[in-house]
Each structure stands twice: as C-alpha cells, then as structure tokens.
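Minutes, project check-in
Item: structure for the 223-residue chain
Input as provided by the requester:
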Amino acid sequence: MQYILSPSLLAADIGHLAEEVGAVEKAGAQYLHLDVMDGHFVPSFSFGPPAIASLRGQSSLVFDVHLMVQEPRRYLEDFVKAGADIITVHAEAVTHLDRTLYAIRETGLKAGVALNPATPLSVLDWILPLTDMVLLMTVNPGFGGQPYIPYCNDKIRALRSLIRERGLQTDIEVDGGVTLQNVQDVLDAGANVIVSGSGIFRGDAGANTAAFMDILRKQEAGR
C-alpha cells in the first residue's frame, strides 16, 4: 500500500501560495489538497478553478480537489480544465451519487467520495467499486484548525475492513485535525492518504512536511 501526504492549502498563507506549494513539494509531498467551498454546503468560501489553474502551471503535484459544494456535477468541466487529477464529492451534497461518480470517471480523472463524520459507511454499499478514494472527514467541514474527532478511528477501521472484504484497492483519505502527534494512530487505523493543513502550514511548511513524510515512509516499510 502506498502512503501519501496531501497538504491542505486551506491553511497556507494565501499571499504566498506558490512559495508554500514549492516548499511542500520539495519536502516530498505527493498530493496537494485543494478545498473548494461554496458558502452553501459549508458556511465558508474558498478558491475556485481560476486559482487552481494558476497553481497548476507551477506544480507537478497531484491535484486532489475536494468539492465541498452542493450538486458539484455542474462544475466538473471547470475543474477538469483547471488541472484537477482527483475530484472528490460529498455524498451529502449530491442527489444522484452514482451518476456524479460516472461523470467524473468519464473525464479520465480519479473519483472520490467524501463522508462527514456522522455519515454512515452504508452510503457506500452500492457505489464503493466506483470510487478510487473515500475521504473520511474527521472534523465537521467548513473551517480549518479543528480538533480531530476520536471516534473516527473506528470508522477508518471499519472502512478498511470493508474494502478488504470486497477485494478492492480503494484509498482511504482522512481530513481534519491530523497532526504529527496523532497521525500514527490514523495510519494504524487503516488510512493511507493523509490530509493536513494547520499541521503543515503552521510553522515551517517544509520541515513539517518532511516530518510527516518520515512517518509515512516508515509505515510503508512496515516499521
């Protein structure tokens, strides 16, 4: 299993995004987590396709685009053109989840499904084979810097068990309150794609990224 770090730009210095992206890329991060908020599904707003397109020309990282927007299928073409590599949509924000996942896959991009902390895994029963990645929110979405919700470790374990039972290779991404202090517990529960915002961009982003990557590499090596 590959272990991947996806630094969340939600916590980066908005005035120096190119430098922040360069720092985490140089330190070994493989993905860049881009949170898109519409002020409707979640109360906050964030950047959209123009900002992502601007960054695309400055980075070779995998663009991990997390759409926290209502009925995101309306905007898929915009994010494809902007340079997304993975598009993740919230099960809670989509009327026809299978149709939306098929639409993402038809663009040639990877498709992900995000679940809020209290959303049950049963939502995935019929569509898990259509997903390349399941994003488990470990805080309630909309704001950065929130503390990790402890019961989510059990949810991660249950999802990893389900994926193994079905013989799938689906990635489990975890987003919300992940720090250098608790990331090992998250990995041990079964996650393999780690999102961190404040844990990386609060302080020296390059050094924090390197510290996360050291833990992930040891996990991948079985140490």
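Outcome recorded: The chain has one domain: 4-220.
No further action items on this chain.
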